[in-house]
Amino acid sequence: AAARHDYQRFAAQELPTRAQFRYPPYETMARLIVRSPSETEAEAFAEQITAGLRSAVEECQADVRILGPAPAPLAKLHGKFRFHTLLQAPQPELLRRILRQVTDTAKTPEPVQWVVDVDPINLL
């Protein structure tokens, strides 16, 4: 359907799956990606920041789903090891508030890098 640009058929097939798994447009999703030349450092920081996210969710008793951290599907890219965490929330503002609470206070060790992708197009 997508190859034929048949939006109606594509939407009819895709939207029920998106609703079932709480994917956009039914909920807001964010993907936190951590990368480092050191696999150990990338994994440790991904675990640390995800623990902070879990604590923030528990504090506000929010209906936020957290998956991960786990190695990204492309676990090593351009010489850097990658771990990711997925978050899903019913309202965009709730997700932003939780992310901001944790990311504003995160102490990122050298040479770790990380990024937050809201409503990601792909999960690779």
How would you characterize this protein structure?
It contains three helices and four strands. Strand 2 and strand 3 form a beta hairpin. It has 124 residues and is an alpha+beta fold. It has a four-stranded antiparallel sheet. Helix 2 (39-60) crosses helix 3. The longest helix has 22 residues, at 39-60. The model has no long low-confidence stretch (mean pLDDT 93). It is flat.
Question: How far is the N terminus from the C terminus?
Answer: 23 Å
Helix/strand order, N-terminal first: HEHEEHE
Strand order of the largest sheet: 2-3-1-4
Name the overall outline. flat
The count of β-strands is 4
Rg over alpha carbons? 16 Å
Going by helix content, strand content and strand pairing, the class is alpha+beta
Low-confidence runs: none
Helix content: 25-40%
Q: Tell me the β content.
A: 25-35%
Mean pLDDT figure: 93
Helix run count: 3
Largest sheet: 4 strands, antiparallel
Key structural traits:
124 residues, 31% strand, flat, alpha+beta, four-stranded antiparallel beta sheet
Topology:
Layout: H1 7-20, E1 28-36, H2 39-60, E2 65-77, E3 80-89, H3 92-103, E4 113-118
Antiparallel strand pairs: 1-3, 1-4, 2-3
